[in-house]
Amino acid sequence: MHLVRKLAQYLVALWVALTLNFALPRLLPGDPVDAVLSKLQQQGPVDPESRHALEVLFGNTGGPWWQQYLDYLAGIAHGDLGTSVTYFPTPVTTVISESLPWTLVLVGMVTVLTFVLGTALGTIAGWRRGTWIDSLVPATTVLQSIPYFWVALIFLYVFGVTLGWFPLGGGYDSNEFVPELSFAFIGSAAYYAILPALTILVSAIGGWLLGMRNMMVAVRSEDYVVAAEAKGLRPLRVMTMYAARNAVLPSVAGFAISLGFVVGGSLVMEQVFSYPGIGRAMLQAVSNSDYALMQGLFLVITVSVLAANLVVDVLYGLIDPRTRVHA
């Protein structure tokens, strides 16, 4: 029953998100039809019937909002997210399917790696205060306070321009490879992803380290930890199974939310490195008043965040039995 209630709550949240997703882009200034017509007019004269055809194509027929809303929900139910203005006449689903893997692989893997490293270092730093690991906290906190696009620009200048070790932008060497499942292409993509990944790692690890370190310091003096030490249990077991297991709970919640936002990409980072991910596609959609693409991207991000929160609700019950609610 508890799981059913949770699912019902998230379904209501999904409906609210879908409604906002429909309304917000339409409140922005600009008309996607005018944007496409201006591009077509640069190539030659446009027939008067072209506007009506584009309005039908983008689902903006001038009818009442409730009719557009129903058409919008029906399109989502059938997997039709419309046609992108920015990448006209490419469907939105195609744009998302081409951009999403880049973001998931880069931002997703780096987010997981940052969480694991930050939590592990924070556990040791909080358990063994005053050691060299504990001295990493101020340095990583300072790095976190610096805007990460500045870190990206510094890395790009030092390692890309000055030393020439890494490329200045892109997701892979487009002169030699095409996107495919081959070792050569994967190696090229991994090489191009080093600087963006390092930017995210350096900018984000300080938060996980500091948060876990402070929780470990607070949990260190709890009665159950003192009792475990008094029983003569091994220090490693006490640190991991008693102290860290309880101290990590806030970090798990934050990690689940961060993981949900992974599909949104790192907009500024992707723009600095010209990385072909979701964040760059979203910037292009906003710049071109691409309602359909904006709605598709927001929908993917919303579903991911809701799914991540649902997962963390389930994980909390497994990690901390006190949070379980019995019907």
TrEMBL record:
GO BP annotations, alphabetical order: transmembrane transport
Transmembrane segments: 7-24, 102-127, 148-169, 189-210, 247-269, 297-319
Location in or out of the cell: Cell membrane; Membrane
UniProt KW Nucleotide-binding keyword: no
Signal peptide range: none
CDD domains cross-referenced by the UniProt entry: TM_PBP2
InterPro entries (UniProt xref): MetI-like, MetI-like_sf
Topology relative to the membrane: Multi-pass membrane protein
PANTHER family: OLIGOPEPTIDE TRANSPORT SYSTEM PERMEASE PROTEIN
Protein name, entry field: Peptide ABC transporter permease
